[in-house]
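Methods — Computational structure assignment.
A single polypeptide chain was analysed. Its primary sequence is given first, followed by the predicted tertiary structure written as C-alpha cells.
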Amino acid sequence: MSDNDDKRPAPGSIEDQFREMLKKANVSFFMGPGGAAPAGDAARTPDAGGEDETDERLKSIREFDLRPRDIRDYLDRFVIKQEEAKKVLSVAICDHYNHVRRCIEDPAVQEREYAKHNILLLGPTGVGKTYLMRCIARLIGVPFVKADATKFSETGYVGHDVEDLVRDLVKAADGNTELASYGIIFLDEIDKIAAQTAQGSKDVSGRGVQINLLKLMEETDVSLVSQTDIMGQMQAVMEMQRGGEPGKRTINTRHMLFIVSGAFGLLAEQVRKRLATSPIGFQAEDGGERAETDDLREAGTKDFIDYGFEPEFIGRLPVRVVCDGLDVDDLEAILSKAEGSILEQYRDDFRGYDIDLQLLSGAIRAIAEQAHPEKTGARGLMTVMERIFRDFKFELPSAGIKTFELGRETVNEPEAALRELLAKKDLFRREAMRRDIAAFADRFQREHGLKLVFDEDAEALIVDRCLAEDKSVRGWMERRFHDLEYGLKLIARNTGNTEFRVTRRLVESPEAELSERIAGSFQR
C-alpha cells in the first residue's frame, strides 16, 4: 500500500460528497497539499498569484511618500472642477496612508488610538465622486471596490451582507489578504439607507445596515468565507477533516479606508428649510436661486441625524466634502481636456471601421449644451453622444466613408446631416458594396473550392437591390444564393469545371438559371 492510499478519504466521506457535487456542477477538482479545492479561481489560496506584481503594490504602500499636492495634480488630469473635493481628499488620503506606513514600520504605532479619515462625499449625480476615488486608488496602487448601499440588508439573507464588501476587496487584490487590508471601499447611494422606515415595519435596509457598516469602519475581523457560501464552507470542513494546515480565515478592517457618497437631494431641502426659518434667514448673494450644493455645505451632524443616520455612524465619517454641480463650460472641458474622455471611446469605435472621426469648431460645445439639461452631470454627455452617433455607427461602416466630420450642425440635426453625407458619398458606398461582393466570392472559394466571377451587370444589380432593400451585401447574397453551393458542386462533378460566371440572369432568377446549367452539365 502506498502513502497516497492512506490519504484517500473513506467512501461516503464529506470529500466524496463534495467531489460528486462538483462533478454534477461540471466543475473540475484537484488535490493540493493539506486538502482539496476546486480548480481555477476557487483553487487559489488567499495569498497566491502574481507575487511580483503584489510585492510591487505592497511596496508602494510601505514606502508611501505622496504629498497632497501630488494627489491633487494627478486628479486634475482626469477630473474637471471639484477643487475643494480634490484638496480635502488629497489631505485625507495622505494622512491615512502615512499612518498605515508608520504602522508597518513600527508595530507599536498600531497600538495607539487612531481615528480613521473615513470620507463622506455629497453632491449631484455624475459630478465625479466615484471617479475621484477610483483615480486615487489607481495612483496609490491599492485594491478598490464600489457598491451601492441599497443592495445590502441587515441579515444578509434578503439582499447582500455588508461583509461581502471586504470579501470583494480580497478578490480585487487577487486573493492577497495583506494587500486587501489596505484597500478602499466605496459605498454609493448611502443617502438611500438613511431615510426613516414606515412606522411598524421591520428595518432591514436602514438602521441595521448602518450598524453593520459601523463595525467595519471601526475595526473588526471579517471571515473570508460567507455563511451563505456553501462551497467555501465545505472546503473548510474538508481541510479540518484531513488535518491539514488551515489557511488564513479572516481579514482585519483596521487599515481599510471607507468612502460613502450620495446625492442627498432631500437633505438639501431639509437644510434649506432650516435656514429659511432661522432668525436671520438667508438669501442668495446675487438675489437669485440658491444652489443645492450651497445648502449641503451648511449641513451639520444634527442635520444628518435628523435625515436618518445613526449618530455613531455619521460620527465615523469625519471628512465631509461637497462636490459641485457641472455647468456647460465644465462639460465642454471634460470632453476636450480630461484624460480618458468619453470622446476618445467614440473615436476608437469609428476607428474599428477604419473611419476617422474629426471634430470641427463648435461641435464639443454643442454636445455640452445638450448634455447640461439632462441634469446627470458627465453621464449626460454619453446620453447625448449616443443619440447623435447611433445612426452614424449603423450606416457609415457600410458606406465606404473613411472620414466623418462632426460639426455643430451635425450635433443639432444628426439625421439631416447623415442623409446629406450619404447622398454625397453614394459613389463611395457603391464601391464599398462592390468590395463586399468580391469578399463574398473570396469566402465562397475558400469554403467550397469554387471560384465565382461576377459580370459587371450582375454586380450593378446586386448593389441596386441592396440599396433598395436597405440590406448588407453579405446578408442579401447569402439569402439569395443559399442553394448556389449545391448546384455548382454538381456541375463541377459533371464537368470538372471549378470557375463559374455570375451573370445578371443568375442574380435575377437563381433557381431557374442554376437548373438550366445543371441540366446542361448532364448533357455534356
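Note: Residues 1-10, 27-49, 196-204, 282-288 have pLDDT under 50 and may be disordered.
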